[in-house]
Amino acid sequence: FMPKLHQSLADRSNAKLTSRTQSRFTGPLLVTGSSRSGTSSLRRAANYFDEVHLEYELDILRDALEAWRQIDVPSSKAAHDAFLDRVLKIKSSNSAEMIGKQTPEFYDRLYERCLEHGSFGKWIEDLYRGENTNQIWGDKCELAQVRYFLSVYPDCQAIFIIRDPRAVASSFYEHSGVNCVTTSLAWVAAARLAQDLAAEHGSDRIMLVRYEDLLSDLPRTMQLISRFIGQPVPDRLDEFELPNQESLHKWRDRLSDSKIRRIEEICFDEMQAQNYRPGIATEKRNINRFQYGLML
After folding, report:
1. Residue 226, C-beta contacts closer than 8 angstroms, at least 6 positions apart
2. The pTM is what?
3. Tens-place pLDDT, residues 143-160
């Protein structure tokens, strides 16, 4: 990318950031999407912002929530420390790396914070941040977790990444042998969830990014993310590495016409809503359980 072009985009975007947007957000920021849709690339792009630090599928939010649901808010230091031990053991290798040194001082500080606000939302934010001082914290998480955390955290934002379902099906089959029908139905469910949450929570909290746009027009995509999270566009975008754009079209050579038709029929309406043009199918096909079994 031409440095002058990027600088122009950055200057225009940064000029529009107000003091309100720069200070309004405390996280978490969630990156999510159906499998094989580019969530890892989107997480890397988000982490390119100076004030953003997203972990990689550590599941600490989910695991701590499950443990928290089984007890009352810890009222004693012993109960609190036992709860914290339980959380850390669930994902011991990843959690230890995320949180840093699990010293008595660390436990004391978290207990004081627990007494201070007594809520899961704020307590888990402290646990999750550890020594991280970035303004925006979060994770690449599962689709099923998004709705809950939007309700727990009034400032929570989520970026959904959407990828051409034909490319998703091709990638799934190549890496794990999953059939295109199962993949297509999962893609439709993810697309509908993103659309429903966007309608429910609005554009201030939900953003949709197409994987194809991230790869083919990084400066514009980063500018849109910048506006969404209220942070300046990062410098040196020309140094940011993404998968080769040729990967966007591999599905054309890997999928038969019959598989392409099947994917497009299942995903027809949602594809059009996300500006993916069906090439073979002419209408949506609804599938019941019996038909699903026959198509596998």
Report:
1. 13, 14, 17, 49, 232, 233
2. 0.76
3. 888 988 888 788 899 999
